[in-house]
TrEMBL record, chain A:
<keyword id="KW-0547">Nucleotide-binding</keyword>
<keyword id="KW-0378">Hydrolase</keyword>
<dbReference type="GO" id="GO:0003724">
    <property type="term" value="F:RNA helicase activity"/>
</dbReference>
<dbReference type="GO" id="GO:0005524">
    <property type="term" value="F:ATP binding"/>
</dbReference>
<dbReference type="GO" id="GO:0051028">
    <property type="term" value="P:mRNA transport"/>
</dbReference>
<comment type="function">
    <text>ATP-dependent RNA helicase associated with the nuclear pore complex and essential for mRNA export from the nucleus. May participate in a terminal step of mRNA export through the removal of proteins that accompany mRNA through the nucleopore complex. May also be involved in early transcription.</text>
</comment>
<dbReference type="InterPro" id="IPR027417">
    <property type="entry name" value="P-loop_NTPase"/>
</dbReference>
<dbReference type="GO" id="GO:0031965">
    <property type="term" value="C:nuclear membrane"/>
</dbReference>
<protein>
    <recommendedName>
        <fullName>RNA helicase</fullName>
        <ecNumber>3.6.4.13</ecNumber>
    </recommendedName>
</protein>
From TrEMBL, chain B:
<dbReference type="InterPro" id="IPR038506">
    <property type="entry name" value="GLE1-like_sf"/>
</dbReference>
<dbReference type="GO" id="GO:0044614">
    <property type="term" value="C:nuclear pore cytoplasmic filaments"/>
</dbReference>
<keyword id="KW-0175">Coiled coil</keyword>
<keyword id="KW-0813">Transport</keyword>
<dbReference type="GO" id="GO:0016973">
    <property type="term" value="P:poly(A)+ mRNA export from nucleus"/>
</dbReference>
<feature type="region of interest" description="Disordered">
    <location>
        <begin position="1"/>
        <end position="37"/>
    </location>
</feature>
<feature type="region of interest" description="Disordered">
    <location>
        <begin position="105"/>
        <end position="189"/>
    </location>
</feature>
<feature type="coiled-coil region">
    <location>
        <begin position="40"/>
        <end position="100"/>
    </location>
</feature>
<dbReference type="InterPro" id="IPR012476">
    <property type="entry name" value="GLE1"/>
</dbReference>
């Protein structure tokens, strides 16, 4: 049981139903760009009408026509209803003939479950060792996470074999022997070339975090090469929280004639995440301020993003002295060490994760209720430009699946302040200022902010203004 | 050995000839037979002496052991008597409560007809039957809401529940529940199907409506809510706690020392609660100790917070008890306030963390049980857990037998569906909260105190009662909220539940996971997830319920 419980945490990205219901502006199942995704509170009086409304085309997973075994798996994980992206994308993805899909949706809205369900629906379980679906992810952590989600949702599916194609996981003797394969592009390519991975009957290729995969020099090339080795008829699904324009064009080439579900970037700031910043007097005070934050509100797990390994280690030392159980994860650790550290965090043995950018994307631990940008994310030459996408992916580690989350960014000088303001302007968010002078006051302010963001679940500033 | 066994005086006697030996060492006759004899004789004496001494010591040790054993036995007996006395007192109290509640019916005659048109004739027999059973069992205080129930059908063999009680008494926990348990099981099966659902369902309706609240659609017209608070002591406590929070802020304005400490203490407790993790025993020791130290500091009251009467924060009036740490009529307000913060922290952790990952509730439950039961935090011999329960009552009323429809305003209010700035929170959010709170409730009420000297502040019978209150809901009134709470309080806790109640727990699980969802009128995801849990238990633990 405990085992199940720990697995439940991984796939939360999945779960059904953005909390508040539905989108009245858009007919379901439409192909094309979804402009506006306001959630509108259903009045209690309207509840009975839901079933008749064309907007509620899919009310439950059952109605999607998924097999009972899959549906039971979802129920065991406390998923009750499909989320919006699932409701929209699933019918398109599982319909025949198979059509490609490019889908963009906020963090923590159930993208993973959407494509996992598609895989499970498409796989023929009578051929358990014949690879039929291939999922590619940018990192081994993400690949393992997706593997976990498939296994959990598919726990009632007999003969389901899922294998991770990451370094150290595939035996040289046997090669790949699973119906669903999740891997990183490099390893997958090697396996195919060494003829240890039979791709002849693959029906489905899924690329998660597609913007990142197609954008990066190495990964993008590898993806293209992998695709070249696969059957030409394969159905391709591309998923990400962000799709910058150039990547989007490339994606359209990569997955021709795809259905698309896309959100505008002003809507991308996940509602439910209260975004604040802490005005620190100077850089050296950041440590003390950090420790104080944990008394201000109830926190489950938290993630702290830092720029360097050195500060990651220093923060770990300080926080452990303060009684926290901490995992520090950065490039200095490799492969299975990283797996073990992350597993500690996932399983709840440690509740604070300090990390450099390695983890900004996709990693889903549902109980993360606070994300701290200890350093503002920067990119470009000399790290001179604020990194909008990374900011979004970072804060998306909390507020998973409609839950309440908090993000606090630390600023301490003009440069960091300006970078953060630029990010806030870009997404049209109001950041609330906190100060470390009077903790009673700051505590009150934080509580108020959390309350008010919960009270406005449809908070999405200026969705049409762009 | 040589040095330790002989007594000093004797060793002197023995050694004096020895010394002579030494001085005589160069004597001619040192090898003479007489000399040999003498030495042999000495050593024989010494040998006998040591042997006697050893035998005496052994004898003493045996006696001491025997005495310890008798003492231990006496202690256990005393403990048993004490527990029984408490139980008896509690039953008396519950019976009194029940008597009180049953007087209320005349208040609400109107809404009854629409709910139970057909079954109206039946209630009479069923209501007369169950209450006695109830009185016997005592712990089934749910009668005020659900009255009789499938669980009562388990209960009738009264020894089943009393034997179950034996489990919580430290001495001889294992033998007692097992032998009587087989009896209730066969008895329960027919009862469940025959009497359980049919008759009890009717009994329920009468009782529910008769007492406090009306369910279904009729309540829109009637004002049932005011009726409930009349006897809703937990809601009163909750209100008193809000008042306390206010007075603390006011005190802090004039009392600098208090102001300086209060905020820091509050934040420190909150931080410690957030740091609790699952894992090896002892991982949370430092957090636990910090919390206890803070509460002790508040109890010592160096900052001179006002003294207040704890009676406002406990379920029923308490009289001084001999041997209690605190019998005084007032305790420092800062202490009660921090207990309040501590309880709030636990609830908040359940809502914010365990909602997403139910297993995180467990370490919090351990911490709550360990802290609340600290002997110096008891008042007049009993824990202050009512502060926490008052909060539970507000945020998760279905645990206390409250029911309602999710489709109506009033129904939602009764189910504890939260509102933020006047709007209902989303469905998923609500269900998440209920998941966390259900798991949290189990984490607190299924703690084992068998190995501890402390008194369990919230023993397993409360878990049983809460489950009974949900499972005994009439079919038409079953809500998703109840299903979610039920699932959450069972998942990961089936083992502890079975530990506490043996085969009776298995019957209860069958009722909760098979029969209860089967009679739910609509089969939504929440209802189905109960059945899936049964399948999952079978798959993972081999426990077959259906």
């Amino acid at each position: 049981m405990a085992d199940l419980a720990s697995r439940i945490t991984k796939p939360d990205e999945a779960a059904g139903a953005a909390p508040q219901v539905e989108d009245p502006t858009e007919g379901a199942n439409s192909v094309g760009i979804v402009e506006n995704a306001y959630d509108v509170e259903v009045k209690l009086a309207d509840l009975q009408n839901d079933a008749e409304s064309p907007l509620f085309s899919v009310q439950s997973f059952e109605e999607l026509g998924l097999p009972k075994a899959i549906n039971d798996g979802l129920l065991a994980m406390n998923f009750k209803k499909p989320s919006k992206i699932q409701e929209r994308a699933l019918p398109l993805m599982i319909s025949d003939p198979p059509t490609n899909m490019i889908a963009q949706s906020q963090s923590g809205t159930g993208k993973t479950a959407a494509f996992v369900l598609t895989c499970l629906a498409r796989v023929d379980l009578s051929k358990p060792q014949q690879p039929q679906a291939l999922l590619l992810a940018p990192s081994r952590e993400l690949a393992r996470q997706i593997q976990g989600v498939i296994q959990t949702i598919g726990q009632f599916c007999e003969n389901l074999i899922v294998q991770a194609a990451i370094p150290g996981e595939v035996s040289r003797e046997t090669g790949v022997r699973a119906s669903i394969v999740v891997g990183t592009p490099g390893t997958v390519m090697d396996l195919i070339r060494r003829r240890q991975f039979d791709v002849s009957q693959l029906k489905l290729l899924v690329i998660d975090e597609a913007d990142n995969m197609l954008d990066q020099q190495g990964l993008g090339e590898q993806c293209v090469r992998v695709k070249g080795l696969l059957p030409k008829t394969i159905q391709i699904l591309l998923f990400s929280a962000t799709f910058p324009d150039n990547v989007h064009r490339f994606a359209q080439k990569f997955a021709p004639n795809a259905n698309e579900i896309k959100l505008r970037h002003t809507e991308l700031t996940v509602k439910g995440i209260s975004q604040m910043y802490m005005d620190c007097p100077d850089e050296s005070k950041k440590y003390d301020v950090l420790c104080k934050l944990y008394g201000l509100m109830t926190i489950g797990s938290s993630v702290i993003f830092v720029r360097t390994r050195e500060s990651a280690n220093e923060i770990q030392r300080r926080m452990e002295a303060d009684g926290h159980k901490v995992s520090a994860l950065h490039g200095a650790f490799e492969g299975q060490n990283r797996d073990a550290l992350l597993d500690d965090f996932r399983s709840g043995r440690s509740k604070v994760l300090i990390t450099t950018n390695v983890l900004a994307r996709g990693i889903d631990v549902s109980s993360v209720s606070m994300v701290i940008n200890y350093d503002i994310p920067m990119k470009g030459p000399g790290a001179g430009v604020p990194d909008m996408e990374t900011y979004l992916h970072r804060i998306g580690r909390t507020g998973r699946f409609g839950r309440v989350g908090v993000s606090i960014s630390f600023v301490y000088d003009r440069r960091s302040y300006e970078a953060l303001s630029e990010i806030a302007n870009h997404y049209g968010i109001d950041l609330v200022q906190l100060s470390p002078d009077d903790w009673d006051l700051t505590e009150k302010k934080v509580q108020d902010v959390i309350k008010s963001s919960r009270a406005r679940p449809d908070y999405a500033p200026n969705a049409l203004g762009n | 050995m040589q040095r330790s066994s002989p007594s000093p005086a004797r060793s002197y006697d023995v050694s004096s000839p020895h010394r002579a030996d030494l001085s005589d060492i160069f004597n001619q006759d040192r090898n003479s037979p007489a000399r040999h004899k003498q030495i042999l004789e000495t050593s024989r004496k010494e040998h006998t002496r040591i042997r006697e001494e050893a035998e005496r010591v052994l004898q003493e040790a045996r006696l001491r052991e025997e005495r310890d054993r008798v003492l231990e036995q006496r202690r256990k007996e005393e403990e048993r008597i004490k527990t029984e006395e408490q139980l008896a007192a509690e039953r008396v109290r519950l019976n009194a409560l029940k008597a009180k509640k049953i007087e209320i019916p005349p208040l609400l005659p109107d809404p009854e007809p629409p709910v139970v048109p057909k079954v109206a004739p039946k209630p009479a027999p069923s209501t007369t039957a169950p209450p006695p059973a109830n009185n016997l069992n005592g712990q089934q205080s749910n009668s005020q809401v659900n009255g009789a129930s499938p669980f009562q059908s388990i209960a009738p063999p009264a020894q089943s529940s009393s034997s179950l009680f034996a489990t919580k008494a430290p001495p001889g926990p294992t033998p007692s529940p097992t032998p009587p348990a087989p009896a209730p099981v066969p008895a329960a099966k027919p009862a469940n199907s025959v009497l359980g659902i049919g008759a009890l369902l009717n009994g329920n309706n009468t009782q529910t409506n008769g007492t406090t609240r009306i369910v279904g659609t009729a309540q829109a017209a009637a004002p049932p809510a005011p009726a409930a608070p009349v006897i809703d002591r937990y809601a009163e406590i909750h209100k008193n706690l809000k008042g306390l929070r206010k007075t603390m802020t006011e005190q802090a304005k004039v009392n600098r020392a208090l102001k300086e400490r209060m905020g820091d203490m509050r934040r420190e407790i909150r931080k410690c609660m957030g740091q609790l993790t699952s894992g090896a025993p002892g991982v949370n020791r430092s957090q636990q100790q910090k919390i206890i130290n803070l509460l002790r500091e508040a109890l010592a009251n160096q900052v001179q917070s006002r003294l207040i009467d704890p009676s406002d924060y406990v379920f029923e009036p308490r009289q001084p008890v001999e041997g209690a740490h605190h019998n005084e009529p007032a305790l420092p307000s800062l202490f009660i306030y921090l207990l309040n913060i501590f309880s709030k922290g636990a609830i908040s952790q359940f809502i914010n963390e365990a909602s997403a990952r139910p297993e995180t509730a467990d370490p919090v439950g351990v911490c709550v049980a360990a802290t609340i039961s600290e002997p110096d935090f008891l008042w007049r011999g009993k824990s202050m857990i009512d502060i926490l329960l008052a909060k539970f009552r507000i945020v998760c009323p279905v645990l206390f037998g409250y029911r309602g429809s999710e489709k109506t305003e009033q129904g939602r209010a009764r189910l504890g569906w939260w509102k933020d700035s006047g709007r209902w929170i989303g469905e998923q959010q609500h269900m998440d909260r209920m998941t966390g709170l259900g798991a949290g409730f189990a984490a607190i009420s299924l703690r084992k105190f068998a190995a501890s000297k402390k008194q369990n502040p919230y023993p397993a019978r409360h878990y049983w009662t809460a489950m009974a209150r949900i499972v005994n809901t009439p079919a038409a009134e079953i809500s998703n909220t109840q299903c979610i709470v039920l699932k959450a309080m069972i998942e990961n806790y089936e083992g502890k539940f079975i530990d506490a109640y043996g085969s009776a727990a298995i019957v209860a699980l069958r009722t909760a996971l098979i029969e209860f969802p089967a009679r739910a009128p609509t089969k939504g995801a929440a209802v189905n997830s109960l059945e899936v849990l049964a399948t999952l238990l079978k798959k993972n633990t081999g426990l077959t319920l259906g």
